[in-house]
Amino acid sequence: MSTQDLLVFDNVSFSYNEDDENPSFAVKDVSFSVRKGEFLVILGHNGSGKSTLAKLSNAIFIPTTGKVFVNGMDTSLPENEIPVRKNVGVVFQNPDNQIVSSIVEEDVAFGPENLAVDPKEIRIRVDEALKAVGMYERRFSETHRLSGGQKQRVAIAGIIAMRPGCIVLDEPTAMLDPKGRADVLNTIRALNKDHGISVVLITHFMEEAVYADRVLVIDQARIRAVGKPREIFSQREMLKECGLELPDTAKLCDKLRDRGIGIRDDILTEEELIAEIIKRSGK
Amino acid sequence: MSFIEIKNVSFGYGHKTPFEVQALSDVSLSVEKGEFISVIGHTGSGKSTLMQMLNGLIKPESGEIRLDGKNINANKKNISEARFRVGLCFQYPEYQLFGETCYEDIAFGPRNMGLNEEEVKNRVMQAISFVRLKPEKLQKSPFDLSGGQKRRCAIAGVMAMLPDVLILDEPTAGLDPAGREAILGMIGNYHKQTGATVIHVTHSMEIAAAMSERILVLNHGTVAYFGTPKEIFSHGEELVSMGLNVPAFTKIILELKKRGFHPEEAYTVEAAADQIASLLGGGTAL
To answer: In this predicted structure, what is the pLDDT of residue A93?
Structure first.
């Protein structure tokens, strides 16, 4: 384990029915680590164990066997629970289940208040966090009047205000409209790039994996593949077996190859495809 | 006369409170029998309110809704007829499963329609064939199914009433790619086999472009556009200003136009590939 590793899963298995004669495992023999400042995307079909991983990452669940370490702290030790949660914050899918206060800035202050942060310091952190997610102008708004995307950004601000080294987001855009989705994704990318926060993004949208540093594919409770987005999305058979697909641009490239256009097979973004078309057309 | 006619419908929440919201303002549109319609719009654009009105769960404050020529809110008989003829499947319908077994859950609708047990059974079997749920699952508790199966069971409960109009509010939300594909395939099947009208709310421009004959765009409680995918996605800038977008494939085509190419418009992956292939001097699909 390197000192650069913020979050480490060491041979982790987790069962919801460990006392049964034949326990079934939601997570089985999983080992990986998240480096400082890394953007890691986890892909996998429904029921593959992704959400269980999220809950194992900050001591909501404790591994049945194996260990999870946050900044070197073993999450299974009760005395580590609070420091672990200070370091790794989790944002879930449904924005309505994560808002606790009726006013935006009070909601964001809830986390640091629970950590007994000094009130003056809370003021500073709340303002910073709201600016980071682009919700500072709405700090006095009532939370129930916000759109889904705005609520998700407030939930993310609530996590940032605890100053974690790592944020884990479990399908944060599944319930959002296109603008809400784009706003939340831009926020997540900015936190990673500009504030150096490590991000673990769990998603069903392949497009969201394109800009990751690394992608982890989970299939039936186990890690099926790890690699850079290009490496992962070049394994078309593996993706299909795992119930996944290609990002839209790569799908379009496959269709071009069907039409006899020998286009490179590692194109993932719109910009790359357009550059390739311009190059090939000789314009 | 169209199959569904929505005439000057308005509705607001929280009247006489500081939180008053006008969910729909003077909405008029009509839908023909057997059409496949997608509805897109930002959060709070009025999509869910309009969908709930179509089977009488919400009454318009002004205006009227006609189904097959009858005002659905005219009397009790019309409302209950609309409830059976218009099947409404909410977002995350698996949260509404309640039956002790899948069979009981799916049979609830047809039983309420007053069908006898023989007919109810036929309806249940037909519904599970639409959603490809195996018959051996019928005796299981719906709560023992996987996430994807739960959703299929819940959708089967609506399809078992064989509604003339099937409305689905974001039926693929939260599903993985294979699950999305499977659910959309089932909806397509139902549409083809029964000839029913399908109204489908989605946040995915790609799905709306690929599946629909017409797309309804709602914006702040009013109809912004209602037309073919071609008509709708020619308003790219306006859609973005409404918190929506054009399909990813259309974006690439539009960008190529800016760079001095002259592709025709395209909204689906196949059409976009045809256009780009012809720009590059390639052929059509092998």
So the answer is: 86
Q: What is the mean pLDDT of residues A253-278?
A: 91
Q: Which of B81, B82, B84, B77 is nearest to B109 (CA)?
A: B84
Q: Print the SS3 string covering B172-194.
A: CCCCCHHHHHHHHHHHHHHHHHH
Query: CA–CA separation, A90 vs A166, rounded Å?
Result: 9
A20 plus A90 within the same structural domain? yes
Asked whether the beta carbons of A240 and A45 are under 8 A apart, the reply is: no
Using CA coordinates, name the residue in chain A closest to B169: A175
pLDDT tier at A98 (50, 70, 90 boundaries)? confident
Contact in structure between A111 and A161 (CB atoms under 8 Å): yes
Helix (H, G, I), strand (E, B) or coil at A124: helix
CB atoms A145 and B19 under 8 Å: yes
Q: Contacts of residue B274 in chain A, CB cutoff 8 Å?
A: 259
Cβ within 8 Å, pair A178-B269 = no
Residue of A nearest to B267 (CA): A252
In this structure, the answer to whether residues A212 and A273 fall within a common structural domain is: no
B163: burial class by Cβ within 10 Å (0-12, 13-18, 19+)?
Answer: buried
**Statement to judge: residues A223 and A264 lie in one domain:** no
Residues A83 and A204 in one domain: yes
Indicate if A122 and A257 belong to the same structural domain. Answer: no
A49 part of contact set with chain B, CB < 8 Å: no
Domains contained in chain A, number: 2
ipTM above 0.85, yes or no: no
- Same domain, yes or no: A204 and A251: no
Same domain assignment for residues A116 and A201:
yes
Question: Could you report the average pLDDT of every consecutive run of 10 residues in chain B (286 residues)?
Answer: 95 86 94 97 91 94 96 94 94 89 96 95 96 93 87 95 96 90 94 96 95 97 97 94 93 92 92 92 56
**CATH placement of domain B4-228:** 3.40.50.300
Within this chain, do residues A26 and A96 fall inside the same structural domain, yes or no? yes
Domain span at A75: 5-245
Asked if B244 and A179 come within 8 Å (Cβ–Cβ), the reply is yes
Cβ contacts of A235 within 8 Å, gap of 6 or more: A225
